[in-house]
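Quick one: co-fold with D-xylulose.
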Amino acid sequence: MGEYFKNVPVVKYEGPKSTNPFSYKFYDKDRIVRGKTMGEQLKFAMAWWHTLCANGVDMFGSATQDKSFGTSDAMDLAKAKVYAGFEFMEKLGIDYFCFHDRDLAPEGRTLEESNENLAKIVDVVAEQQKLSGKKLLWGTANLFGNPRYMHGASTSPNVDVYAYAAAQVKAAMDATVKLGGHAYVFWGGREGYETLLNTDMGLELDNMARFFKMAIAYGNKIGFDGDFYIEPKPKEPTKNQYDFDAATALNFLRKYDLLDRFKLNIEANHATLAGHTFQHELAVARINGAFGSVDANQGDELLGWDTDQFPTQLYSTTLAMLEILKAGGFTNGGLNFDSKQRRGSFTLEDTALAHIAGMDSFALGLLIADKIIEDGRIGDFVDKRYASWNSDLGKSIIAGNESFESLSAIALKNGEVTTNISGRQELLENIFNQILVSGV
Ligand code: XUL
Ligand code: CO
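Sure, here it is.
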């Protein structure tokens, strides 16, 4: 088995003054914040595909990172990744992981062989889980990599591809249940279109809904009692992805009556690509009762693609944690690092340092969000801003007792509106900054 991350020590909380790069400055796993430990509030997960598979390949260049873990045989490598992954989680104190079927085990020459490969590696993972207590946050199937999915999977015009995708999801759901996962993700990588000239969008969306209903039915059969998540993303690889953003995905779930089993997995960089903030997407999920899980990362304002950087921007992590706390925190979901170290940060130590940076940034985000709530000035301001909705008229509108006729009569009687108050945006932003730098 051996040690894979040789230069990575066990990483512990050492506090904000520590200069040890392999320490947490802010993530103090057992510290209680808003009634739960930081570990429970943040539920960090390692993404199998980035942490154990991604090797720095990009559109313009080949691998810079050695993720061969000392072997070249595909199944031996898959096993080595299990041991490496559990060593990594142990050293960093990460309790959860997420996987795609194909990053756990290699695709075989046939579907049977692929299923066998997956089942074999799932057994090894289960063994390691028993020894370590590490948990599966969610599983998913890679329905975008193989050429058969060039036109989509559950939205493919080719019914045989649809059936193949169903077979793959069935096996990935079996793996998820076997590993004790309480969530299953659908990210529709190629569920979209390149041109409407060749696309029957109505049929494709109906078929995707049929696919999800089959997933629910199969889940019920095998005792999957968790959540299904849609992970919205507007584009990349397709020009238009059907789960464009949270609002679009919710419209789909509502139309096809899927909301009782489906929630959303919100990814920061996907929000940026959709022209939204991370906070916006989380808020849309929350107010629709569909907040599920988070893929933690960040994009780059100057690059228009999914850079999947480790999240280090405190504004973003703080605003995200405020939303997550407002949503009542995580139940089946958590913070999955769908993030990859930069191509130039090519060592295995960087893999650890990148996770440490992301974890500390979300820990800080949680601590600052907690302080903002405790401080109360921003929350109170929002309450006051809407105070007129507690008036008799406000209450009557909310109760559904008013009409355009009655409101028109009231407005005519009131005369001109002279009571608007300032939105105080700059003041609130300054309060936010004051709390952000005032120590946690
Ligand atoms: C791709 C992406 C995926 C999903 C799982 O942008 O985010 O890795 O999280 O398929
Ligand atoms: Co993601």
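If it helps, The radius of gyration is 24 Å.
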